[in-house]
Amino acid sequence: MNYFLSVTLSKFCRVVVAPLTRTRSYGNVPQPHAVLYYSQRTIKYSFLISEATGVSDTAHGYKDTPGIWRKDQVDAWKPIVSVVHDKGGIFFCQLWHTRRISTKGFDGVEIHGAHGYLIDQFVKDQVNNRTDQYGGSLENRCRFALKIVEGVVNEIGAHKVGIRLSPFANYMDSGDSNPSALGLYMVESLNKYGISYCHMVEPRMKTIGEKVECTESLVPMRKAFRGIFIVAGGYDRADGNKVVDEG
Fold this sequence. Notes:
Blueprint: H1 2-12, H2 33-39, E1 47-49, E2 53-54, H3 71-86, E3 90-96, E4 108-113, H4 118-123, H5 138-156, E5 161-165, H6 179-190, E6 197-201, E7 205-207, E8 210-211, H7 219-224, E9 228-232, H8 237-245
Parallel strand pairs: 1-3, 2-3, 3-4, 4-5, 5-6, 6-9
Antiparallel strand pairs: 7-8
Helix pairs in contact: 2-3, 5-6
Keywords: Flavoprotein, FMN, NADP
Family: Belongs to the NADH:flavin oxidoreductase/NADH oxidase family.
Protein name: NADH:flavin oxidoreductase/NADH oxidase N-terminal domain-containing protein
């Protein structure tokens, strides 16, 4: 699995099906129609990241988003995962805890550390007002996120772990005074865990659905991170082809 994932993601996967919150998992249980939804987005060697999935009954900030902490939820995910595998795809489950507002069958997990939710709330200096070991300095603010990464890596293996980050975003007023330094510190710290990939949101996406002109870039983070680097945010077909062509 380690070899298969690393070779497939690096050699074949240039475009990834990113997570999309669908709010159609009634009662926090994935529905049968999701089998068709994910099947339609799968071809051989494709890489899919599931919609954000709650880790507990207190993790949800939106109605009808899926969970994976109960047996009925796990059982509901199984046919969805199976159809992706049957079509030759790789499927990671994005785990989140929204805060402010054991995955069976999946190939791995993506830790949701972006968009003003629990992890992002720790790393951003505009919302983290703690005075303990998890607040103040950049190192302290990132400590919680890195402890989560370490815990998940120890549980399922680094090759099955990815993380999503949005250092430049200001979702729910969760901004940072030096997002470039934050992003660079995080990717350099992630290197020691050897995780499969880092999934970063483009600086131009400051808030939901708002694409702005921006001179900041993810290139320093891409160069610093030693794993696979995935970017999302504001792309159309022409933009995507351009950045792939330019490396």
